[in-house]
Design brief:
Layout lengths: L2 H8 L1 E12 L2 E12 L14 H8 L7 E6 L2 E2 H4 L10
Length: 90
Amino acid sequence: MNEQTTIVYKQLAIETEKHTRRFGTIVAVDEVNLAVPYGDIFGLLGPNGAGKTTMIKMLTTLLDPSLGSARVAGFDTRSLAGSEASPSAS
C-alpha cells in the first residue's frame, strides 16, 4: 500500500456527532455518533421503526436533523440541505 492510499483510509467517509431527529415527542434517531472511514463497508441494522431510514434521509439531506452534525465525504450535510448539490433540491 502506498502512502497516498494510507492517507485516504485514515479519512472519514461518514462522520456524525449527536445526530438526532425528533418528530414531536417521538425520538426517531437519538444522538448517534458514527465514524466510518473510506473503504469500509457499513450497515445499519435494527428492527422496524428503529430509525434506519430516518438516519439515511438525514445523511442524504432529504431530512434535517433536530440536533447534531454530520459530514459525508467531507461535506457538512446541514450546509448542503436545500442547495443545488443536494438531492432534496430537485
